[in-house]
């Protein structure tokens, strides 16, 4: 098979795959992928390099388009947004399997640049791994990228449907960006499919990426949360959140940003 010719066709094929993906997700998830909350957390929040890669190698990756940063951030210590930081960790892992820089750039192109209506597959899969079930990132011999939940992956392996590939536990690299995460807790928010604010709240409960959360039940009755795991031992408050029975929730994300959910 002519791999170069196949890669010329891939954008069209990938667009079909993305359209299929969009047809199977709740509207609220799609809205959250491009709203100000997910953008602030994943696109705008900048970090330093935390992956095990030398500055020389990293600069080479930037020169060759394997890693992308804003021109305004060049030379800064904190120059990578969270999406890029996660990708760098994935790239470091793939290099251990001998994946070339050219192939890394091609994999990146599939994940970041094949978009439909500003839909970014890499960001979307980061969010799905946080909000729902973790997945494997699978890289085929031809360096085609795909994502499978653990259950689907196990089923395909048991039936012999997968050829030789590289298997990366995607959630491991996401956890490193949210060291205080509570990904394993089921917060049980109801009727989430059509309400982007419910998805936004679930995101912050799962990542635990906030300074404090004030749940206002009524005038004069405010409950303070400094770690979302506190809800495990406060069932009445958890049920209020699950059933969306509060007046307002104020989430202080950091010193500069506050997110307010009105009910």
Keywords:
263 residues, alpha+beta, 2 domains, 9 strands, globular, disordered N terminus
Walk me through this protein's architecture.
This is HTH merR-type domain-containing protein. The chain is of the alpha+beta class. The protein folds into two domains: 3-175, no CATH class; 196-262, no CATH class. Helix content is 45%, strand content 16%. The protein is built from eleven helices and nine strands. The strands form three sheets. The chain has a four-stranded antiparallel β-sheet, with helices on one face. Helix 2 (27-33) crosses helix 10 (196-207). The protein is globular.
Quickly count the helices: 11
What gross morphology would you assign? Answer: globular
Q: How much is the radius of gyration in Å?
A: 20 Å
Amino- and carboxy-terminal Cα gap: 56 Å
Which regions are unreliable across 5 or more consecutive residues at pLDDT < 50?
A: 1-13
Assembly status: single chain
Q: Briefly note the structural class of the backbone.
A: alpha+beta
Instruction: Describe the largest sheet.
Output: 4 strands, antiparallel
Amount of beta strand: 15-25%
- Number of separate domains: 2
- What is the residue-averaged pLDDT? 88
Assign a percent range to the helix content.
40-55%
User: Would you count the extended β strands for me?
Assistant: 9
Order of helices and strands: HHHEHEHHHEEHEHHEEHEE
Please give the order of strands in the largest beta sheet: 7-6-8-9
Protein name: HTH merR-type domain-containing protein
